[in-house]
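Tokens in:
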């Protein structure tokens, strides 16, 4: 064999090895992304339930006893999904954050009217804030930021924009439900609601999904005309359900997009 042919054969072998390695890496990356999407779906389901728990317990502490059956059912649902995550995602059992959050949940589920709505609100916020960080870390570790949504926008808008918008709605739901239950609002609650209104108005400017605008706008109108008045004109369940409609639309948009991500 001539020197030329030997060199050519070596080059071809190197190219074949690089191609095979590239194919394997691509397959490995796609598998990692599929796993990441599955994990995020479970964590977002937990997020949604804890957000509901914050809203309902705020109304209960505010004085609406009728919310307790919904709270107890929700607690069962939360613990069921926690058990499912622990069972199917072995890695998370040794995650210090996750273990700490499970201990935190045991304190959150103990509802005590001796504690204020503000205390209940802040404790839930801390739990949810850390859960949002875990979701973002999970997405990045599984390279989901390299993918695109259906409308070709970067995938990271899902956890950096949509989930943060859902949390603004969730906080507005909790505060407003507490106000509707007690029949009055404090200056601190009014300030917080105004701030959340501003955040949601900013989201509407950047909103990549036009179908989310009507329910969010309806919520903003309700807050202004039926909650932030001298005597709220909705009861706790009515306001909670209206705010939940807006939040569910955001979560539905998230779930649709996360399952349709493409490289």
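Residues out:
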């Amino acid at each position: 064999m001539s020197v030329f042919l030997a060199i050519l054969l070596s080059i071809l072998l190197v190219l074949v090895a690089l191609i095979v390695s590239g194919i394997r890496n691509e397959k490995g990356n796609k598998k990692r992304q599929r796993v990441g999407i599955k994990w995020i779906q479970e964590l977002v389901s937990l997020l949604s339930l804890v957000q509901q728990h914050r809203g309902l317990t705020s109304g209960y502490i505010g004085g609406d006893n009728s919310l307790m059956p919904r709270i107890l059912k929700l607690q069962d649902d939360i613990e069921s999904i926690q058990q499912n995550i622990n069972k199917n995602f072995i890695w998370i059992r040794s995650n210090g954050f996750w273990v700490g959050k499970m201990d935190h949940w045991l304190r959150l589920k103990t509802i005590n009217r001796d504690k204020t709505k503000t205390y209940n609100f802040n404790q839930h916020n801390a739990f949810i804030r850390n859960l949002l960080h875990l979701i973002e870390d999970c997405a990045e570790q599984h390279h989901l930021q390299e993918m695109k949504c259906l409308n070709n926008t970067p995938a990271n808008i899902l956890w950096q924009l949509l989930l943060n918008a859902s949390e603004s709605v969730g906080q507005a739901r909790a505060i407003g439900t507490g106000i509707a239950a007690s029949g009055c609002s404090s200056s601190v609650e009014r300030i917080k609601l105004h701030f959340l209104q501003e955040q949601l108005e900013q989201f509407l400017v950047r909103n990549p999904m036009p179908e989310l605008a009507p329910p969010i706008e309806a919520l903003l109108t309700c807050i202004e005309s039926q909650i932030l008045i001298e005597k709220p004109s909705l009861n706790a369940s009515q306001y909670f359900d209206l705010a939940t409609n807006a939040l569910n639309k955001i979560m539905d948009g998230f779930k649709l997009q996360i399952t349709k991500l493409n490289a």
